[in-house]
Amino acid sequence: MPDSFLFGKALWATVMIGMLLPISGRHLVLGRAVLLGLAVPQIAMAGIAFMFLAASLHWSWAEALHEESAKAIVGSLLFGLPGLLLIATPWRRGARLSEAWLAVVYLASVAATNLMLATDAVGETYLGDLFHGRLLFIGEPELKLLGFTLSAGFAFLFAFRRRLLLTLTDPDYATVAGLAVGGWALAATLVNGTVIGITVATAGPLVAFGFLVLPVLTAATFATSLRGNLWLSMLAGLVMALTGFWLSYHYDLPLGDAVVATGCAVLLLARLRHVVPG
Question: Which of 67, 119, 156, 255 matches a 20 to 30 Å C-alpha distance to 264?
């Protein structure tokens, strides 16, 4: 494959997301908040659409960001972080936001994104590419930012994984054990929000949600402990990334759709093997 180096950045980005993003996904799955992982990337997409709309309206602070990727990163964090904080706040007070309201947040974000793009052809084209996974177009600065964010987020979430998981899955026991539940929940929200926001801005919401959920659900089929769930999630994410990239390269398929479809197939095979003995 003499031209394979053309896609080296896309391969590195896919592998990093596949291996490191599932640790954030574990918080969603184990905390029974999978829909949160669907709503937050779409909120980030609305932020990106807002940045393109602001630039088309010639707002100086938006026009100052000349690169489209810079607009995407700023917009994703501008909406994604506050959105996640607002959604997660009731959890720390013991009043978990229902799945129905998370669905409403998702629908409102989709509608807002489409409305903001209605008169902006440039933004519509960019977000259309982003939705299918813009990994093939990732540049050196975006790759470095993605790598730093994922690595830093993984290091924090791994180092404090026991406290964070206890806080998110059993806050009453965590309080009795003397943990500052509100502080740890806020820290997890900020780290996960930043990681998800940067991933959405560089790879798209489909890729972000796929790697947040599919590797963790696959690992849960085999894992018998939280430690096993973590390592199997990373392994499943790596398999999903490499296999999806290979299929995309050899059959000229959209990379984002290929890795997510691969993840769905791996999860289905894992579940069938678990359900059907022998």
Answer: 156
In a domain, 277, yes or no: no
- Model pLDDT for residues 88-143, shown as the tens digit of each residue: 665 444 555 677 888 899 999 999 999 999 888 889 899 988 887 878 889 999 99
Q: What is the CATH number of the domain that holds 142?
A: 1.10.3470.10
Extract the tokens encoding 50: 């807002």
Considering the entire predicted model, what is its pTM? Answer: 0.90
Length of the chain: 278
In a domain, 44, yes or no: yes
CB-neighbour burial class of residue 24 (10 A; exposed 0-12, middle 13-18, buried 19+): buried
Quote the tokens at residue 242: 């490499």
Report DSSP state, residue 262.
H
Structural domain that includes position 87: 4-271
**Separation CA 88–CA 92 (nearest Å):** 7
Residue 278 lies in a domain: no
| DSSP secondary structure letter of residue 7 | G
Residue 25 near residue 211, CB atoms below 8 Å: yes
Amino acid of residue 33: A
Burial status of residue 15 (CB atoms within 10 A of its CB: 0-12, 13-18, 19 or more): middle
Instruction: Report yes or no on 145 lying in a domain.
Output: yes
